[in-house]
Design goal:
Blueprint: H1 3-25, H2 34-46, H3 50-69, H4 71-75, H5 78-91, H6 104-124, H7 134-143, H8 147-163, H9 168-190, E1 195-201, H10 205-214, E2 220-226, E3 233-241, H11 246-256, E4 261-267, H12 284-289
Antiparallel strand pairs: 1-3, 1-4, 2-3
Subcellular location: Cell membrane
Keywords: Cell membrane, Membrane, Transmembrane, Transmembrane helix
Membrane topology: Multi-pass membrane protein
Length: 291
């Protein structure tokens, strides 16, 4: 991907994250995990502005990552380390954004969507929002503690810290916010990458292979199989395509062999030639001309 596009998406993700925090989390006093949650706690106990608290915390965590994990790791979080607190600081200057709703349920829903969307966009580009992602990675490197375990402990501790000064409603809505944001992150990180895989068993596999390559311009793989009832050895056709092209592929298979066995599955991600890499050849004729 073009580096400029990647950076723009990371910046956009941080901006959306900041919008969710500034417009809904902070005004309604919702609890939140990560570095933002610590910043909210620091703001409550010391009165230090949230953006300043995030600047200081992110800088400390960034330096920890730089010295322990190395420069390569630090480069994946430097944009978020600098840009996210800046977004919070700028958005704080617009009071209208902090008065969009007085309904805590709406705030929890919209903050969950925006926070999850923002983090998801950043993670999808192979970067990190930094913050509380860093200590678990350091603990794994130094002591072999699984990242998932220390991350859960850290997030639980941050939520508990805020629960000490939040009422029961704010805690419950905050938990809803955390739950929704996690769901959105999981969805965004694979959204747009999902593909459809077809496993086709038919005695007319050669005709199906030629048609999928020649007419649909799809890549296929032949898999050696043995039929269960007759014990006959033959080939099956394995094909991966976009969901929008699924109907056309099924129609072609149906025309060639109405009795073909077709197993269709949605898969989260596909990598390699034809998907994440450019295809060198569009059809077998071109392949033969160039060999």
């Amino acid at each position: 991907m073009n580096p400029a596009k990647k950076i723009i998406k990371i910046l956009l993700g941080n901006l959306i994250l900041a919008l969710g925090v500034n417009c809904f989390v902070v005004p309604q006093g919702l609890i939140m995990g990560g570095a933002t949650g610590i910043g909210i706690a620091v703001n409550h106990y010391t009165g230090l502005n949230l953006s300043y608290a995030l600047w200081i915390l992110n800088l400390i965590l960034f330096l920890m990552g730089l010295f322990v994990m190395g420069k390569a790791f630090a480069m994946t979080i430097i944009i978020s380390t600098l840009f996210y607190p800046l977004c919070i600081q700028v958005l704080e200057q617009f009071p209208v954004l902090q008065n969009l709703t007085d309904d805590k349920l709406l705030a929890a829903i919209y903050s969950g969507i925006l926070v999850g969307l923002g983090i998801g966009l950043v993670v999808r580009e192979g970067a990190s929002t930094g913050g509380m992602d860093i200590p678990p990675l350091i603990l794994q490197k130094k002591f072999g503690i699984p990242v998932a375990v220390s991350l859960y402990v850290a997030d639980f501790s941050v939520l508990l810290l805020q629960a000490l000064f939040s009422d029961s409603e704010e805690i419950l809505y905050g938990i809803l916010n955390v739950f929704l944001s996690s769901m959105v992150v999981n969805y965004v990180t694979v959204s747009g990458q999902k593909k459809v895989q077809l496993f086709i068993v038919s005695p007319k596999y050669e005709k199906i292979r030629e048609t999928l390559i020649g007419e649909m311009d799809l890549g296929v793989t032949l898999v050696q199989i043995e039929t269960g009832f007759y014990g006959k050895e033959q080939m099956a056709v394995l094909c991966v395509t976009e969901r929008r092209r699924l109907y056309g592929v099924k129609q072609l298979i149906q025309q060639i062999d109405p009795d073909a066995f077709v197993n269709i599955q949605v898969i989260s991600e596909v990598r390699g030639r034809g998907f994440t890499l450019e295809r060198k050849y569009q059809n077998p004729e071109k392949l033969q001309k160039n060999t």
